[in-house]
Amino acid sequence: MKMKRYLAPDMRQALKLVRDEQGADAVILASRRVAGQVEITVALEHDDTPPLRPQAVGNAVSEGVVPAGFEALLAARERSVFPAATDSAALAVAQAVPAASVPPPAGAVNDELKTLRRMLETQLAALAWNDLTRRAPLATELLRELTEIGFAAEVAARVVDQLPPELDFTGARRLAIARLADRVIVTGDRWTEHGGVVALVGAPGVGKTTAIARLAARWVMRHGSQDLALICADAQRFGAPEQTARLGRLLGAATYCCNDLSELPALLERLSRQRLVLIDTAGVVPRGIGIEALAQGLQGIRSRLEIALVLAASAQAGALAETTTRFQLLRPDACVLTRLDEATSLGGALSVLMQAALPIAYVSEGPGIPDDLRPARALDLVCTAVQFAERNGAAADEDLLARRFGGSINVAS
Ligand SMILES: Nc1nc2c(ncn2[C@@H]2O[C@H](COP(=O)(O)OP(=O)(O)OP(=O)(O)O)[C@@H](O)[C@H]2O)c(=O)[nH]1
Ligand SMILES: [Mg+2]
């Protein structure tokens, strides 16, 4: 087996060297510290001596031989990062794996190889993360905290990367929070201050109708009810028009109902003198075809209204990301974040909105009208996210941190 050694100041750079020269499938045999540097030993592809053949690995795994050998191989590699250990230990293990006599099915071999590669990747990420915690303890501590708050890896890494090196932990933490707040886009008290024509859209039950009632109540308290119009364009939810009519009576505002979105252009024309027009729409399942129908229905009047996507902060970040992506078809101008009172973590939701560059107009944190609705403030939201993590004792798992920030070489196919 032919080998090549790579030297770099740290694990991340060493892995990059290997990856650049040998590609993502490089087989790493050992890594160790040498005179303050990290040395990685890699098996070369063009080799006269047959190393671990895929068949041998597949068979050996099914016979329970390779796991031991593989772990020993990894252990040998891991040992060699700290005190001196020889590459020959790893090589000996590699060569000790017996060749198989009966080749297993190709699919099984591939699965076994994938598993082994994933394990290697995890180990390499752990090594790189350990290396990073020694070299940059402050940065890694901040990455840990931002992960605990729920911020996405890209958001956390970007903020921490850009911190000036001379800060102590308290200063760095404070600056990180300020930088995160800079990335949260808010609109200010846009609609209840200045008015507009706004359609609230979103998944069923997220709080669209309640948000309309709150916006309308805030408007009436400031400006009175004469310039306000409420439109119910929700023909699906049982009792929705009656609900809008009841709200109108309560606030003294004019209400309208359209059974089909095609009626909206003419209705908006009639209401062109109103300062605030709020349009309630039917809940749309993000994975369904309703979004296309809604986009088509609003197409002709898209330039005459703003669209506010209503999102529940209590939903998982993945679900919010999917909803936000699907509703991009409607090109929402802003969002209203509801159910903050039910959320246990907020970093994920804020990351999704940062990444989608979707401004937050209002947040609501309870079912009360109108008290529970307030204009979104970026720093408040980031501080709330921090408080949620503290209150819930959120803790980031070491493996997760290693996988996210270890920057391991990609040995997976
Ligand atoms: N805890 C809590 N409940 C809320 C909040 N906002 C709305 N709700 C409640 O959520 C429920 C659904 O609210 P709606 O306003 O009817 O939701 P919707 O999006 O209009 O629902 P559909 O029209 O069926 O799609 C109601 O019981 C509201 O009181 C909030 O911020 N916190
Ligand atoms: Mg509704």
Ligand inventory reads: guanosine-5'-triphosphate, magnesium ion
The H/E string reads: EHEEHHHHHHHHEHEHEHEHEHEHEEHH
Low-confidence segments, ≥5 residues, pLDDT <50?
47-99, 408-413
Helix content: 40-55%
User: How does the helix and strand content classify structurally?
Assistant: alpha/beta
The number of helical segments is 17
What is the fold-level CATH name, i.e. the topology of the largest domain?
Rossmann fold
- Using only CA atoms, what is the Rg? 29 Å
Largest sheet entry: 8 strands, mixed
| Overall mean confidence score, pLDDT | 82
Ends apart, CA distance between termini? 22 Å
Architecture (CATH level 2) name of the largest domain = 3-Layer(aba) Sandwich
Envelope shape: elongated
Assign the CATH class of the largest domain: Alpha Beta
Report a brief summary of the structure.
With 413 residues, the chain is α/β, with parallel strands linked by helices. The protein has helices at 11-22, 54-62, 66-81, 87-96, 106-135, 137-149, 153-161, 169-183, 190-194, 208-223, 240-251, 264-270, 290-299, 317-327, 347-356, 378-392, 398-405, and strands at residues 3-8, 27-34, 37-43, 196-202, 228-233, 254-257, 276-281, 306-312, 334-338, 360-364, 373-375.
